[in-house]
What we know:
Helices cover 80% and strands 0% of the residues. With 210 residues, the chain is mainly alpha-helical. It has eight helices and no strands. It holds the Pfam family IspA.
Amino acid sequence: MKILFDLFPVLLFFAVFKWGESHQDSAQQWVTALFASVSAAGAITAEVAPVMLATGVAVLASCLQILYLLVRRQKVEPALWVSFIIILVFGGATIYFHSETFIKWKPTVLYWTYGIGLLAGQWLFKKNLIRSAMESQIQLPDPVWNALLYSWVGFSVVMGIANILVAQHFSTSAWANFKLISVIGIMPAFLIAQSFYLSKYIKDEQHEPH
């Protein structure tokens, strides 16, 4: 359920974008009615309407995520705050300037922000943030914690570059497909690979004498 909750804005973005692609005239009408008064780039074209509508829905979904957790007095994880701020900035720019470029950059900025945050924690504050998040669930040797951290940094860098390459060299539709695949396919595959890597340490820990 937590995974679905975290992916809620991305899944909505994809669904609304695909609907808008198939109903550009309707998407244009919706976007014009909703965003014409807060846009600075003149008339909204049918071509950009689907991504603008999907972006607006994703921004709303992110706001509802934060509001839901605050109302229920649950902790809002730092990663969710970071994602929320970035979608507000880049989603807002997409709507204001009628430009899909901003929302296409959003995943890259998010990935690289995570990567920089992990490196800053390790190099500046001598704190392994992956270890801080997971140590209550699993005990690992220090070198393994470091390997995990740098694997996440590398993953963030690679995914950020991949997103930009797809955004620049393929259609918006192909980019949206890649965006979905990255969160329901590539990310889970990366987590599964990590699980296999960690499994021997979990087994060793279980067989240690007490």
